[in-house]
Amino acid sequence: MDRRRVNGPPGGTAPPCYASTLSGKTHPSPKRTRGANEIRKIFLKTGLTPSASGSAYFELETPPTNYSNSLTNRTSALKLTCTVHGPRPLPRSAPFSPQLLLSTRVKFAPFAARQRRSYIPDSGERDLAAHLETALRGVLIGERWPKSGVDIIVTVLEGEEDRPWDALAAGNQNGRTGGWGMMSILSGCITVASAAITDAGIDCVDVVIGGVAAIVRQPAAPPQLVLDPCPSDHEEVIAACVVGYLQSRDEVTETWAKGNVTASSDGKGTTPMGFNALVDQAVEAAVAARRVLVEAIRESTEAKIQSSQAKLPDKLTSV
Amino acid sequence: MSLPDLAYPGLPLGPSSSYIPGPGTHLHLESSTIHASIAGCPTFIPSTAKGSKPTLSIPRLLPSPTHAPIPSSNVSNTNTLPTVGSGVLCRVTRVKSKQVDVVILVVYGAEGKFGGGGEGSVCADEWQAVIRKEDIRATEKEKVVTAEGFRVGDVVRGVVISLGDQSNYYLATGRNELGVIMAKSEVGNKMYPISWKEFKDPVTGETEGRKVAKPF
Predict the structure, then answer these.
(1) Could you tell me which residue ranges the Exoribonuclease phosphorolytic domain spans (chain A) (predicted)?
(2) A101-150 pLDDT, tens per residue?
(3) For B124, nearest residue in chain A (alpha carbons)
(4) Which H helix or E strand runs over B35?
(5) What beta strand segments (E) does A90-140 contain?
(6) ipTM of this complex
(7) Residue B20 per-residue DSSP state
(8) Residues of chain A with C-beta less than 8 angstroms from the C-beta of B119
(9) Which of A301, A306, A316 to mutate to test the interface with B (most CBs of B within 10 A)?
(10) Domains with residue ranges and CATH for chain A
(11) Chain A residues within 8 A of B40 when measuring between CB atoms
């Protein structure tokens, strides 16, 4: 019982249950409508939290639904927000650090998953934060900020589920985003944190972008390699990989791969399987997302330049 | 090679054979080009010495368009870090026999160019700093009494001499134009300077000793 907060009723509340949902009619499973090499459309905007040094909001397009008798979408669309505080002085008790001290946190909102999460951080969130830190550490130029720390906090407003919601409700899984959805979330976290860090004006070697690719099982065909998988679109995900990629240097700062790659390498088919191919495709997904990130940074930088010129019309320039 | 209008981290700006990397840029060793480190407008500062290369830099922008800065012409609110040699404005928090504890409020660029056209940025967070007894004056260092030079609440102009240890920067006020610029008397009135070591309270007529900064 969480005594520090005002909790809801202990027994929980049940939403109204309509007759059509009880009729036992099952909708056909959602299918992936994009091409195998196409990523979902991204909405990315920076500078939305004025009190933070830098901030960004990231959202993936809501998947189309053509079930007229369903009020909600059966699959989720990732929504993330990131705030960056710093560089700011370290507390007095911290030892002298000649480099910038990076601290990352990923928080799931209680309403982010189909099953309500508690406020207390769990191991999944800490794992994501560790992967995010690895991805960002390779990008920040730490020597320019001695004795300082930066806090990066990513809040997941809506996460990726592994199954469509009615399948979750039917009890096929325990409803928590545990497996493949986390990888899409990490890919989004890397991109949104990179946008927020650039908004905060912290020196970076390049913009790091997250990309994710997966090998999925197809009903009557050999397994396929797809970019930006939505786990609820597929019957089974065999393996998946997330990378944090720097395009101007062709470097990868973070790799996280899960699953069984050897089981799908069959030598036949047009797409070669294998770990290297999976990582290469994840890099392709990152490159596709980079255009959106660069465009968002460009827009917000232009807005800042215009507002700084507008505010100081009679500024004395120093020689 | 002409500079792009707008740069973001990782964008190549120019070859290192023609430019020196300045603030906001970094050198990419493998390709010997200068890349941008932050988002902004790249500018280049022509070199002062004959024969040396101009400096490519990207000046930092204000945090966000919605964040209203202090409406004064040269001061902006950014996350600037005090560096060795930069001038600062700070406020005294504690006066001890061997040192004076201050908090840094405003950081000026390198070489401590105060007043006139010097660009100052108000720090978003206060940085702890210390002025040691031997750094208060340039001459007769052993005869200094800290309580005759500073009081709690004074605003002091100083220069950073060292990054210091885990909790403090080290400042010095050993030049004529460094020292206390604003002070309040014991009864609470604002005082004005009358010599290099005294402030005068216009209401009561009393004078108090401080290490006074020479006004421009």
Answers:
(1) 38-202
(2) 999 999 999 888 877 788 888 888 999 999 999 999 999 998 888 889 99
(3) A88
(4) strand B33-36
(5) 101-108
(6) 0.79
(7) E
(8) 318
(9) A301
(10) 42-318 (3.30.230.70)
(11) 201, 301, 305
